[in-house]
């Protein structure tokens, strides 16, 4: 995936679009993001330091933000949308009038798909800025490494009943990805049977995608479904948490896009350019994310090379046709 393809990311600053700023600056930028608030605020502060302007981070769960953008279609309030449990939410909403088209110069020469991983939208509706791995966090004081689940089916072991947490798919893009993956891998009928069993195993389904991993760190759950960086962030803070990359699991980029009709289109483009700059990529790496820039070394023990053998094929066309249907069916079954 990487190598020469992404070499354009290696510059100290973005050179495309309005990434270098201008005499009147980028102005006020409203950023919608479900990513960790402290993390996104650090990105915002670095952007302000490098480019000027002001970035207002609006935090909420992925699907809550999507609903907000849909409600604001006739009068957009946000400029940039960053993150949402990977590309599937962006794919499902690419043609709904909430995502504008813009591709930073650094990514214009990338292939749309490389090594089976989709890096960007074919019509410039989003670009990936990092790589996410969906897997299992576990509390190392409550679960021995050799006993930790290694596959999605392992989560159904009776010994984990009442000891698992995952986020509410009605609110969280992280768990929406989990449900869609089960549908794609098992078929819808068996996929829903699996999810019914998994719900019976859970002791809570909070709205935030990061909340289950935090619950594991506090001993409120033994196992959590979440992304890799969530576990490694907690581990770096001294929490007794580790992470398992399941045998076959979604591995995909986490994107950024411009909001359609953004009040500050110029600022939105500058922020997207910035996210592919070395400054921003280093912040991602320091927060235990896997940066898309191969020249930036991350603190996470995971790399594309050591996780790509675990990746499952994600049927993007199926997602685009079934995303809303699956979410609505989840609500009918479990809410």
Automatic annotation (TrEMBL):
What's one GO MF term for it? thiamine binding
Q: Which UniProt keywords apply?
A: Signal
Region entry Disordered, spans: 11-31
Q: Which InterPro entries match?
A: Ferric-bd
Q: Which GO terms describe its cellular component?
A: outer membrane-bounded periplasmic space
Q: Name one GO biological process term.
A: thiamine transport
Q: Which SUPFAM superfamilies match?
A: Periplasmic binding protein-like II
Q: One Pfam family of this protein, by short name? A: SBP_bac_6
**Compositional bias of kind Gly residues:** 14-24
Q: What is this protein called?
A: ABC transporter substrate-binding protein
Originating organism: Pradoshia eiseniae
State the organism's lineage: Bacteria, Bacillati, Bacillota, Bacilli, Bacillales
